[in-house]
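Example S7 (structure tokens).
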């Protein structure tokens, strides 16, 4: 047992250096300010009041949450049927479909997003097809449609795989018992399959919503300078404006929002599925 405990130390050191220290620095910067070019380590809430008093930043936050929620809902609507079909397929076909879902993730997300930029542009493939029917060109880049499409494409594999894992682990004897009790396929799905897959749905929601609400390069590439989300604001404060204090404050606000959203999804999971939620 002692030998195994020693193996934990490298991870603890890594977590301390790569997670704990950066978070402490964000806290420090968020509650401090610059004074004449010299760091003034005095407690202040100016960075937070600046964010909440500016309607522009609040509008960006509102837009980011809206995009993240829409992306998550679309991923659930599209991902559940796909996961269900994969779970119900024969083992060899199921393995092939899982590979097909995960294969695009082997390519860097930035490269895949760039590919969508070329597809959606005015002289891209979609507009070329539409022109054959006398339609277009349709402006798709630098719109919310392009941003949501890019996010759904990049994050939906996480949703599918989480729901698939829940469905694949489900005991088929429950469905047999439901049928013996007179339930049809729709009733069996609503009363048995769907509740048992809730943990997968909740995990998928978490894995999609968190990166969607904080994403910065997808809206930057597909939305251009015309479509700014909260991740772009944070990136701009750190890399362009050089205002690490304000950028840290926004990052802390987003961290709190993410923690609250995780607690809400966990609460819903526990209410719907008390035994499976833990």
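Recovered sequence:
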């Amino acid at each position: 047992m002692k030998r195994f405990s020693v193996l934990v130390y490298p991870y603890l050191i890594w977590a301390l250096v790569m997670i704990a220290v950066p978070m402490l620095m964000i806290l420090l910067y968020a509650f401090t300010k610059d004074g004449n070019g010299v760091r003034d380590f005095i407690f202040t809430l100016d960075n937070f009041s600046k964010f909440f008093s500016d309607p522009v930043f609040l509008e960006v936050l509102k837009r980011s949450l809206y995009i993240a929620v829409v992306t998550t809902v679309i991923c659930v609507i599209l991902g559940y049927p796909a996961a269900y079909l994969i779970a119900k397929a024969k083992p060899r076909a199921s393995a092939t479909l899982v590979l097909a879902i995960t294969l695009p993730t082997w390519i860097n997300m930035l490269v895949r997003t760039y590919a969508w930029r070329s597809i959606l542009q005015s002289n891209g493939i979609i507009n070329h097809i539409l022109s054959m029917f006398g339609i277009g060109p349709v402006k798709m880049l630098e719109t919310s449609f392009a941003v949501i499409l890019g996010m759904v494409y990049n994050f939906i594999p996480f949703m599918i795989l989480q729901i698939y894992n829940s469905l694949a682990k489900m005991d088929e004897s429950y469905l047999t018992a439901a049928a013996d009790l007179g339930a049809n396929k729709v009733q069996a799905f609503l009363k048995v399959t769907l509740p048992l897959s809730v943990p997968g749905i909740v995990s998928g929601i978490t894995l999609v919503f968190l990166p969607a609400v904080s994403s910065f390069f997808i809206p930057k590439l597909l939305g251009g300078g015309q479509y700014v989300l909260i991740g772009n604001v944070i990136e701009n404060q750190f890399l362009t404006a050089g205002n690490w204090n304000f950028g840290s404050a926004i990052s802390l606000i987003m961290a709190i929002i993410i923690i609250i959203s995780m607690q809400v999804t966990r609460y819903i999971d526990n209410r719907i599925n008390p035994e499976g939620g833990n």
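Notes on this example. The chain has one domain: 45-272.
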